[in-house]
Write a structure and sequence with these properties.
This protein is of the alpha+beta class. The chain is 19% helix and 39% strand. The chain has 15 helices and 32 strands. It has a 16-stranded antiparallel β-barrel. Strands 1, 2, 5, 6, 7, 8, 9 and 10 form an eight-stranded mixed β-sheet that branches. Strands 12-11-14-13 form a four-stranded mixed β-sheet. β21 and β22 form a beta hairpin. α2 crosses α11 and α7 runs antiparallel to α15. The protein is elongated and about 105 Å long. The chain starts with a helix and ends with a strand.
Length: 726
């Protein structure tokens, strides 16, 4: 009876017990400043605040989406501190992972920026400076365990991301869909990142319409909101000095207007966190630690107010605990599917995917495979997702062909002056037509005008889906000046013109090299350009067999920090192929890069030999120029045999940026020792010591290099090169 009375006494109280208020977390956009959100999450966890829903825009969507998907604060902090942000916020894959064929594009002194053309010949312009390839791959790798989650209410914490329809200006709230794609759309800053196409709509950064999505969080059914405002402050009149400053201010004005409107809706029971970020910019990814600490401190200051939101009874969040299990992030792959609208076949794409079936997803290998695929230059983006099917998980590779076109034009320039009134210049261009058939055939034509004139055209036809074997017919024409000497005294300068054709059969060696076996014929004229008119001019015929081996693991062809570049060619001229003379030549080149911090040393050189008797003019190698026996003009020293050893040192003198718009400046110097000589002892330069100093700028167009060189032959020269440095 007493128990019954007690129950009747407390029954009214039980009936009126108040449920715990649902807490919504609102994370605003602000690019790198958004890393402060991690510090806020850290402080909230320490204070025992349970978040029931998250709404985020731009970087707020990135941090909020990862946290909602099960990432711990410690994991988010490690990502922020150790991620290569410059790589993540660019499209270029690591050079070591691109196909060797594409590495060859860097061999000439051509600028890295190129014009793309569509199949109809029209100029193709992208929708953004950055297509977001690496960023999308990063998000996919981090969120692969959510690939099959279409309803964002089914995440460990219900989540919303905000984007903007650039065509209509409408706000788009992602409640469903592919989580990495939704986050990628939310942070697509217009003109910087290409818009993300979702269901026929082009979506850009949500900050344009709702940078602090308080309204979105309330629509998720929360009772109170914790709002984190990390928006960029307006610049003063004095700080608006360039067109870039004005453009940035315009974007800030737009986001602050809608942000203030959202902040005006806050209630007294809501909590506003505003980290002190006045000294941090939108691109300060290198200061992640400081911004995380700023977010943490700003939240700790509000501990007394946040205590009101702490649940009365602590409990484990089973959904979060489950999402944080390692097994959830490594699904077993049972099949691989290809979605492809590019010029090359599904078989080519499938060849590059090395994921074993029946094994857990190997994210590191898959990331490398995606980089190699994207490096083929056929795709606007190459992405993947994991889909759960009745027969198990399927890895789906989605490759979207380039809308801006896959044919490319590149330009280059170099100039040298010996300070004695003699100069040399070369202006180059190349045009590459890609995707001629589904195996990835291409037609490359290169034109060079100036001191060394050249026209080279090659048709490259892969013989299998992986381009392991290929056939490459080619034709060429060239003209250059060759100095003739007797008893070490120059007596004439010949203008040698050569025309020919040939055929190579080859095999690629992974992404690092290739070997070619070839046969070719050439014919030409050697006319006296400067010197005694009585000296003979003559015509010649050449026919040869050749073997070429190339190996390239440099991380950067212009300013390498690691890796090596090796080249070996063997050629035999034979009368059976209509050659005037029978002789053999070989040439070897090596560059090895070693770095420590901002300092780099490149060790290497060249060695070329003519092994039998032959005409000294037509069988000559050429050397000379910046870092190629500095002090001489480009290619001004000729001999049947050459040797060069060099040590090049350079140091980056500008800090490394954490965004693609990085303009490093290098100061450096070189020491060189070389020799050129003929087999008949008519010429031997003896060993020449040389050196140079230089300053180089890695501009958006390519390396811009100014050098001054000298040698112990009393030669001096100035060099200007737009394009390749070495």
């Amino acid at each position: 009876m007493r128990c019954l009375l007690l129950c009747l006494l407390f029954l009214p109280l039980l009936g009126f017990a108040q449920p715990e208020p649902r807490i919504g977390l609102v994370l605003s956009g602000g690019a790198a400043r958004g890393l402060a959100h991690i510090g806020v999450l850290k402080a909230l966890e320490e204070q025992g605040i349970k978040v029931d829903a998250i709404a985020g825009t731009s970087m707020g969507a990135v941090i909020g989406g990862l946290y909602a998907a099960g990432y711990t604060v410690d994991e988010l902090e490690q990502i922020a501190l150790h991620l290569d942000w410059q790589q993540a916020l660019s499209d270029s894959p690591p050079r070591q992972e691109i196909p060797f064929r594409r590495k060859q594009d860097d061999r000439d002194f051509l600028v890295k920026q190129r014009l793309s053309f569509r199949d109809d010949g029209s100029l193709g312009l992208p929708l953004g400076v950055i297509q977001g390839q690496n960023l999308a791959l990063l998000l996919e790798s981090l969120l692969v365990h959510t690939s099959d989650t279409r309803d964002f209410d089914q995440l460990a914490i219900p989540f919303r991301a905000v984007a903007t329809d650039i065509a209509t200006g409408e706000k788009v709230v992602f409640r469903r869909g592919h989580l990495p794609q939704a986050i990628r759309a939310s942070m697509s800053i217009p003109a910087v990142f290409a818009p993300v196409e979702v269901n026929g709509r082009l979506l850009v950064d949500g900050g344009m319409v709702d940078n602090i999505p308080v309204d979105v969080a309330r629509e998720m059914g929360v009772d109170r909101v914790i709002v984190v405002d990390i928006g960029t402050p307006l610049r003063s009149r004095k700080e608006l000095a360039t067109v870039v400053d004005v453009l940035n201010q315009s974007v800030t004005l737009m986001t602050r207007t809608n942000s203030e409107a959202q902040l005006a809706t806050l209630k007294p029971s809501d909590v506003l966190v505003q980290p002190s970020l006045a000294g941090y910019g939108a691109t300060d990814f290198g200061r992640a630690r400081d911004m995380i600490d700023a977010g943490y401190r700003a939240t700790q200051i509000l501990a007394s107010r946040l205590a009101e939101l702490r649940p009365l009874a602590s409990s484990h969040d089973l959904a979060l605990d489950s999402a944080r299990l390692p097994s959830e992030r490594t699904p077993v792959i049972r099949s691989i599917l290809i979605e492809n609208d590019s010029k090359i076949s599904d078989a080519v794409i499938r060849h590059y995917i090395r994921q074993p079936l029946g094994q857990p997803l190997d994210l590191d290998r898959l990331q490398s495979d995606m980089s190699t695929l994207y490096g083929l230059d056929y795709f606007e983006q190459v992405q993947y997702r994991v889909v759960k099917r009745k027969d198990g998980n399927a890895l789906v590779i989605n490759s979207r062909g380039k809308r801006a076109g896959t044919d490319y034009l590149r330009l280059g320039l170099n100039l040298s002056d010996d300070l004695r009134g003699d100069s040399a210049f070369n202006l180059g261009a190349s045009y590459r037509k890609n995707g001629i058939n589904e195996l990835g055939a291409e037609w490359l034509t290169r034109l060079q005008l100036g001191d060394h004139q050249e026209l080279y055209s090659e048709f490259y036809q892969p013989l299998d889906a992986g381009s392991r074997y290929f056939i490459a017919p080619y034709m060429f024409g060239e003209a250059q000046n060759i100095e003739a000497s007797i008893d070490d005294d120059p007596v004439a300068e010949y203008r040698v013109e050569r025309f020919g054709f040939g055929l190579n059969l080859g095999r690629q060696i992974a992404n690092n090299g290739e070997i070619r076996f070839g046969i070719g014929q050439a014919w030409g004229e050697a006319d006296v350009r400067i010197g005694d008119p009585a000296l003979p001019s003559f015509s010649f015929n050449e026919g040869y067999y050749e073997v070429k081996y190339s190996f390239d693991t440099l991380d950067n062809v212009d300013y390498p920090h690691e890796g090596e570049d090796i080249g070996l060619s063997l050629r035999q001229y034979d009368p059976s192929l209509a050659s005037d003379d029978r002789y053999r030549q070989w040439q070897f080149g090596l560059d090895k890069a070693l770095s420590s911090g901002p300092d780099t040393v490149v060790l290497g050189g060249r060695y070329g030999r003519t092994l039998d008797a032959a005409d000294a003019v037509t069988s000559a190698f050429v050397i000379g120029g910046a870092r190629q026996l500095s002090g001489f003009r480009q290619d001004s020293v000729a001999g049947q045999n050459i040797s060069l050893a060099r040590l090049v040192y350079y140091r980056r003198v500008t800090p490394r940026a954490f965004v693609p718009l990085d303009f490093p400046v290098y100061l450096g110097a070189s020491l060189e020792r070389g020799r050129a000589w003929n087999n008949d002892d008519s010429f031997d330069s003896g060993y020449i010591n040389a050196g140079s100093v230089f300053i180089s700028f890695d501009t958006p167009l390519g390396p811009l290099d100014f050098s001054y060189g000298l040698n112990d032959e009393a030669e001096r020269a100035l060099y200007l090169n737009l394009g390749r440095v070495f």
